[in-house]
Write the structure tokens for this entry.
Amino acid sequence: MSNENNNLPVIIPPKSATPSQGTLDLGVERQVEIDGIGMGVLSDGTPFLTGRGLARLCGITHAQIQRLSVEWIEEAGKPRVTAIKEILRKRGVDVPESPYVRIVQRSGSFFAYSDAVSLAILEYYAFDAAETQQDALKNFRLLAGTALRVFIYTQVGYDPKNAVPHVWKQFHDRVALTYNSVPNGYFGIFKEMADMIVTLGQAGLHIDDKFVPDISVGTYWGRHWIESRLSEKFGERIKYEHNYPNYFPQSSSNPQEPWCYPDTALAEFRRWLREDYIGEGKFAKYIYSKVKQKELPASFAQLAIAAYTEE
């Protein structure tokens, strides 16, 4: 490996920064590649390196990182994997079942190695490998402690103090894209359902690309609108432009064109939502359908129904 990494800055990390590691099933908040080192931040705020980026920091080949990753989950761990896991334990970091999180994007998939795992691997190649790597030693001296975390945050322009918590991010991003899209004098289903989604979120069930209750509500409300001939009473509904965040699978068909309804029908919508959609079991039916499709855990179904119906 060349000496391009001499440009890595010496960072004085804040005392509050702490490494984290856990079981992650997340997306990517920010991602860049600098001097051949791929890095980014997962949507829960965890900094990561790509496999190729980690290999470059350690002064080894990507194939070596791949082999190490395979060995990680084997019952009889190889000495280097045992040594790396021991480094994590000494730092008080839970040893994950896998050293990486598999991230799936439209362009393909890649493995994201958290800052804690990356630093442990870097330390191993700097001091404990049979043939220690000078690049690993140099980079470990620069990035030891919490400096790797701060370095990644700095390079991708991520401020953890002002980041939207992951559990609310997808809801927040959808709100941001729909806030001013409904024409004056009309209301949209998603915005009108914000209180329901917040209530469910407080119970531990957060909106994502698999849990989109406004689609269910919009479908049933649309049938009610037509069958009850509500346009004769409140005026005609119209289409408006609605977009999903670009990391939602639904965004592939952006812009969407859902219906919005005259404000004069808002009281009727709220009555219908309370008495018909929730009261007559349509909400429970939607939740249980997600459980059946294995998109929600069964324990959350009871929580969600109880949290909202008892309001």
Summary: The radius of gyration is 25 Å. The chain has two domains: 3-159, 166-309.
